[in-house]
Description:
The complex is a heterodimer.
Chain A (H helix, E strand, L loop, with lengths): L13 H31 L9 H4 L2 H26 L3 H31 L9 H34 L3 H34 L1
Chain B lengths: L5 H4 L3 H22 L5 H23 L8 H26 L4
Helix pairs in contact in B: 2-3
Amino acid sequence: METTNHTPIEYSTEEGSNKILGFWVFLGAEIVLFSALFSVYLVLHSHTAGGPTSKDLFEVREFMIETFLLLISSFTCGLGTIELRRHNVKGLVAWLVITLLLGLGFVGMELNEFITYVTVEHATIQTSAFLSGFFVLVGTHGAHVSLGIVWMICVVIQLLRRGVTPVTARKAFIIGLYWHFLDVVWIFIFTAVYLTGLVL
Amino acid sequence: MSANNHELNKFPWKHVIGLALSLILTLLALWVVVSLSLPTVATLTIIVLLAICQAFIQLLMFMHINENHGRGYRILAIAFGFYIAAVVVYGSLWIMWFTV
C-alpha cells in the first residue's frame, strides 16, 4: 500500500519476488505438515498407558519462559526486516544476532525440558502414545528452530561479506518469514499442548 | 536511498504494538487456564480463539502478509494451508470423539 513509488529491495528483481512467493507456498505446506502432527498428538493425548500424563509433566514457569523467548525473538527479527529496508547492514545484523541468541535460549530450554522428562520423569518417546505424539510434534518444531538458527547464521555471514544486495536482501527477508512462522506454530503448541495439557 | 519513504523513518509502532498484543494475549490465555475455573469446553474455546488472534498478529504485523507484491497469491497459499489444517485437526478430533 505504501509502495506505489518504492519497491523494497528484496522484491526488486523478478527472481527475488518469485522466490519470496515460493517461500509463502512452502509455509502453506508446512502448516499442513504440522496440522497432521497436531491431530495425532490431540487424538492420542489421553493414551498415557500408565505413564506420566500432561498434568504430571508440564511446568508453567518453564513453558512460559520458552514462549516469551520465542515471542520476543520474533519481534527482534521483525525489527531486522525494517533495518533491511533501510539498507542498514549493521542494524540488520545486530537484530539478527539478538534473534539468534533468543533462539538459542529457546532451544537450550527445550533440550533441558526433554532431558528432564527422559531422565527424571522416565517419560521417553517409547513410554506411551501420548509421549510419542508429544516428542514428535514439539521435537519437529524444535528441529525447525535449530535449522533456522544454522540458516540465519549463514545469512548473517553473507550479509557481512556482501552487504545488502537484491540477493542477500531476499535471503534475509525469507529467513525472517521462516522465523515468524515458527513463532506461529509455537503459539499453537503453547495452546494445544501446554495450556490444554493443564486443562484436560 | 529510501529517504522519501516515510514508513521507514518512523518509530516501528506496528511491531511494538504487535509484541505487546502477543504478550498480553499469551498471559491472558494462561490466566484463563490457571485462574478462571470455567467449564473445560469454554476454556478450550477461549484459548484457541486467542491463539488464532495471535497468529493473525504475526502474519499482519511481523510478516507483512498484507503488502503489495503478489498479495493475492500469498494470502491464497496461507489461507489454503489453514483450511486444510482446520479440516485435518478438527475432522480427526470430531471422528475420534464421536458418540451417538
